[in-house]
Amino acid sequence: MIRPVLRMGDPRLWQTARPVQQFHTAQLHALIADLDETMRHLDGAGLAAPQIGVDLRVVIFGVDDNPRYPDAEQVPRTVLINPLLTPLSPAIEEGWEGCLSVPGLRGWVPRWSRLRYTGFDAFGRAIDRRVDGFHARVVQHECDHLDGILYPMRISDFRRFGFVEELFPDGNAGAAE
Ligand code: NI
Fold first, then answer.
1. What CATH topology corresponds to 11-167?
2. DSSP readout, 79-113?
3. Of the residues 73, 93, 94, 142, which is catalytic?
């Protein structure tokens, strides 16, 4: 089912989400199906459960050929539950991001360049990956949602935060989510 996405200002987006306790349940699979359907409907690169008002540490992400991000690197379709992120170097990379909870805007956001992430899929199977580039950016953006952080809270230069049409008059708005 396509679910409404909460927008910035809704206090549910500021909460720290609760860990999933039981895997491979009907409720968990239904939640993931809703996240997936909603994300595809909106051509998003990722979506976190709190964005549809569900207080659980569940995110999905993935980019194959997304018309919204023609230049984005591909990211495997992933369901990530109870994630833990660990930077693999002190290097920081800045890049444009957007968010389905902050529609119409883009911001220039610093993120760890390389990181390891661990967690579980919907069946409770362990996930353990080392990633960089756009993949690393998307994971950090989505997992921030589980701690009540939206990307504008990480922007340092607010001249690089604004409406898509103003920032990218030529129409090329590469971004995450
Ligand atoms: Ni987002």
1. Peptide Deformylase (3.90.45)
2. EEEEEEEEESSS-EEEEEE--TTSTTEEEEEEEES
3. 142
141 labelled ligand-binding: yes
Tens digits of residue pLDDT in 38-63? 999 999 999 999 999 999 999 999 99
> Which of 36, 1, 13 is CA-nearest to residue 122?
36
Domain residue spans in the chain? 11-167
Q: What are the C-alpha distances in Å from 8 to residues 101, 126, 148?
A: 6, 32, 11
Give tens-digit pLDDT for 90-141. 999 999 999 999 999 999 999 999 999 999 999 999 999 999 999 999 999 9
- Report how far residue 171's alpha carbon sits from residue 177's, in angstroms, rounded to the nearest whole number: 17
Model-level pTM? 0.94
Q: Rounded distance, CA 172 to CA 46, Å?
A: 19
Q: Which band of pLDDT confidence, cut at 50, 70 and 90, is reported for residue 67? A: low
**Residue 142 annotated to the active site:** yes
